[in-house]
Amino acid sequence: FAWISRNRRLWKDPEATIASSTAFLYAASVMILVRRLARAS
């Protein structure tokens, strides 16, 4: 979970609802996967 600290929005957790926090967590995960795929090709 060290990658959460690189995503400042997830680290500070200003979101009021669990649903919005979950959405940002998914978005951060997608961005990490996209970066890894871009590096691999």
Describe this entry's structure for a reader:
The protein is mainly α. It has one domain (3-40). The protein contains 3 helices and no strands. The protein has helices at residues 3-6, 8-12, 18-40. The longest helix is centred in the C-terminal third of the chain and has 23 residues, at 18-40. The radius of gyration is 11 Å and the shape is elongated.
Note the topology:
Elements (H helix, E strand, L loop, with lengths): L2 H4 L1 H5 L5 H23 L1
Jot down its keywords:
0% strand, 3 helices, 41 residues, transmembrane helix, mainly alpha, membrane, transmembrane
Residue share in helix: over 70%
- Average the pLDDT over all residues and give the rounded result: 74
Strand content: under 5%
Number of helices: 3
Order of helices and strands: HHH
What is the overall silhouette?
elongated
Give me the count of strands.
0
For the report, how would you describe the main beta sheet?
none
What's a concise summary of this model?
The protein is mainly alpha-helical and 41 residues long. Helix content is 78%, strand content 0%. The chain has one domain.
